[in-house]
Amino acid sequence: MPSADYRKLSDEELIHRFIHRNDHVTINVLFERYGHLVLGVCMKYLKDGEAAKDATQQIFIKLLEDLHKFQIEHLKPWLFQVAKNHCLMQLRKAVKVVNNQFVTNEQMDSDEEWQRKIETEHLYEKLEIAITQLNKEQRTCIDLFYSQKLTYAEIASKTKYSLQEVKSHLQNAKRNLKIKLETITGGVRK
Q1: Low-confidence ranges of the chain (pLDDT < 70)
Q2: Which pLDDT value is given to residue 113?
């Protein structure tokens, strides 16, 4: 059980201790702080208690790896985005649409299909990482436009950004995502 001193530390201080001192107690504090929130996101999408618990554990295991790979400036929104994307990936894995028919994973037996699926999922993982690295305004506009399917005008109304600011944030976000994906993947994506 982490001491009260650890609980007083900010997310940034806990992350710093984990990365630079290999202090794993800090992850327990972060789990205490955000585990129930991540579990709630997973329950919302997966609608199954055991699957949500498994997903929450996988997300925190991913956090252990990602803290060493990426500079995560705002942990809470990053965790929520990763949790949401993780759950969406789980749902995508369960059922695929091939030639306008639903096909379960068991029916996908071709090595080529599995390879494409794995490559696509790796790209989605890299995309979710790249999205967390956008500034707040760009991240907000990308989420509202692509995830919530809002129009420019609806985004402007919801965020209080001007219509021009919404267009600018989306355009800059797309450009920055392309650059970040090229950096992460080590090549040019079209």
Answers
A1: 1-4, 94-115, 184-190
A2: 67
CA distance 17 to 34: 18
HEC secondary structure over the chain: CCCHHHHCCCHHHHHHHHHHHCCCHHHHHHHHHHHHHHHHHHHHHHCCHHHHHHHHHHHHHHHHHHHHHCCCCCHHHHHHHHHHHHHHHHHHHHEEEECCEEEEHHHCCCHHHHHHHHHHHHHHHHHHHHHHCCCHHHHHHHHHHHHCCCCHHHHHHHHCCCHHHHHHHHHHHHHHHHHHHHHHHCCCCC
This prediction's pTM? 0.49
Distance of CA 30 to the CA centre of its chain: 17
- Cβ atoms of residues 37 and 80 within 8 Å: yes
